[in-house]
Design a protein that fits this description.
With 244 residues, this protein is mainly alpha-helical. Helices cover 77% and strands 0% of the residues. The chain contains eight helices and no strands.
Length: 244
């Protein structure tokens, strides 16, 4: 059994971790509905992409882009399995891992049982990441099928309304796949925060809060978002002659 006075900080840290992860995920979805963010802006670009796809007969480049996106998800899914294998390996020799961590600064001595709980929580985070990346891969497969079924330029019996519906549907499927990829990457961010738990619960709380701030800054106030949102509405003034 764990000592009550030393166990409750860990419970508080786990509770804060869950609140930050789940709360930020819900907040990002809610705020992205009426505020420019990476997800909402990229969805608009995907709609433009699908509309332009319908204007060309050769869709090889479009299929290649989908393939590259799918390979990115496949890479992270494979990496996640390797990480899980490493965690399970450490779980089998937790006593040795605890003795190695004991020499690090800020490390709070804990029992073997609590160390195993920490490893199991870390494994759960990366199991979730694997499921999100694998589902992302499948959704990119669905998007590839949609692109293959896209109506050709000048195809008869395909109305403009049907073309518009196709572009919106295809862009939505690609955005859903991208959102799953984003959730998987977010799992990696919070997985890094769990590593701080092996030092002590207070550092865990601090690092978890820092992860939320980093995610918010990148998704809602990053420089790349500013570039993608910016559109020059006026033509630049012509340079004046030096003699004038």
């Amino acid at each position: 059994m764990f000592a009550t006075e030393s166990f409750w900080p860990h419970v508080l840290a786990v509770f804060w971790f869950i609140v930050c992860w789940a709360g930020y995920t819900r907040y990002a979805i809610w705020k992205g509905r009426d505020t420019a963010c990476l997800a909402s802006v990229l969805h608009l670009y995907r709609e433009d992409w699908m509309r332009r796809l319908l204007l060309r007969d050769n869709r090889i480049a479009d299929a290649s882009v989908i393939g590259n996106l799918e390979r990115n998800a496949s890479f992270f899914a494979s990496s996640t399995l390797i990480i899980l294998a490493g965690i399970l390996t450490v779980l089998g020799s937790s006593e040795r891992a605890v003795s190695l961590l004991a020499d690090l600064p800020l490390v709070q001595p804990v029992s073997r049982g609590l160390s195993e709980i920490k490893l199991l929580c870390l494994a759960i985070v990366f199991v979730y990441a694997f499921f999100t990346f694998s589902w992302c891969m499948r959704q990119y497969n669905f998007a590839a099928v949609l692109i293959g079924s896209a109506p050709m330029v000048g195809e008869r019996y395909v109305s403009e309304q049907e073309r518009k519906a196709f572009s919106e549907r295809a862009a939505r499927v690609i955005s859903m796949a991208a959102n799953q990829f984003n959730l998987g990457l977010r799992s990696y961010y919070f997985g890094m925060a769990v590593l701080a738990w092996f030092l002590n619960p207070w550092v865990f709380i601090l690092v978890t809060s820092g992860v939320v701030l980093v995610l918010y800054r990148r998704e809602f106030h990053s420089d790349v978002l500013e570039v993608m949102v910016y559109t020059q509405t006026t033509a630049p003034e012509p340079l004046k002659e030096k003699n004038e």
